[in-house]
Amino acid sequence: MLLRTGPSRNAETSPPPGFTLIELILVMTILTAVIGLAAPSLANFFRGRTLDSEAKRLLALTRHGQSRAVSEGIPMDLWVDTAQGTFGLEAEASYNSTDSRALDFTLDKDIRIEVINVDPANTANTARAASTANPARTASLRTTGNLMRSASQPLVVSEHPNLPTVRFLPDGSISESSPQVLRLSDRDGASLWLALSRDLVNYEIRTRNK
To answer: Cβ distance 183 to 114 under 8 Å?
Structure first.
């Protein structure tokens, strides 16, 4: 008597197992619920990344402005248009009628920029405290302060005369007439501050304005 050892005819012809319609609907429902719960967190994450990248781009432009001012021996102006959400860098117009290397940037549509000027008395106190903390730099800070005061006296000629301007002088210092703080905020109220450092020689990103 012979026994059949291969697959039966019924096994060969039966369709492979699959998902039923009810199972597919259940899986889609679970996926929809998970995406709905995760979407707000993902949106906040990407908005936070956008705020951080815009602050870093603005900080990089301040470094570029200082570098150009020193290398070319010409004051550089970083202008800010808070109404249009734009900013840029250009050589002072009184030295160059046109600047072929001028840069213009537009902020992300969800980011807003504000210019904040701190009381000059507070700035003087900050500079005095920095000098006391580091006596070796007292002379250089005093010289820088004198240069900034003399540089802020002439009439500024600019392509953007009615806009707040951060001015970088040829010695690498920052004019005392420049804004003390630039605030970047998103539509959820999160903020980053681009503020003058304690020694007043450059800007730095802060998570709090203090």
So the answer is: yes
- Rounded distance, CA 20 to CA 195, Å? 61
Q: Which tokens sit at 184?
A: 């970047």
**Phi, psi values for residue 110, rounded to 5°:** -95, 0
Residue 75 corresponds to which amino acid?
Answer: P
Q: Taking the domains of the chain in order of start, what are their residue ranges?
A: 55-206
Q: In the predicted model, what is the mean pLDDT of the chain?
A: 74
**Cα–Cα distance between 145 and 150 in angstroms, integer?**
9
Q: What are the structure tokens assigned to 199, written together?
A: 């020694």
Segment 4-50, tens digit of pLDDT: 555 555 555 555 566 687 878 888 888 777 777 655 655 554 455 78
Amino acid at 129: A
Residue keyed to tokens 């940037």: 105
What pLDDT does residue 188 have?
A: 84
Q: Give this prediction's pTM.
A: 0.60
Q: Give one word for 29, left, alpha or beta, with left for phi > 0 and alpha for psi -120 to 50.
A: alpha
Tokens linked to 61: 């432009």
Q: How far apart, in whole angstroms, are the C-alpha atoms of residue 54 and residue 81? A: 15
The answer as to CATH 3.55.40.10 being correct for domain 55-206 is: yes
Whether residue 145 is predicted with pLDDT greater than 70 in this model: the reply is no
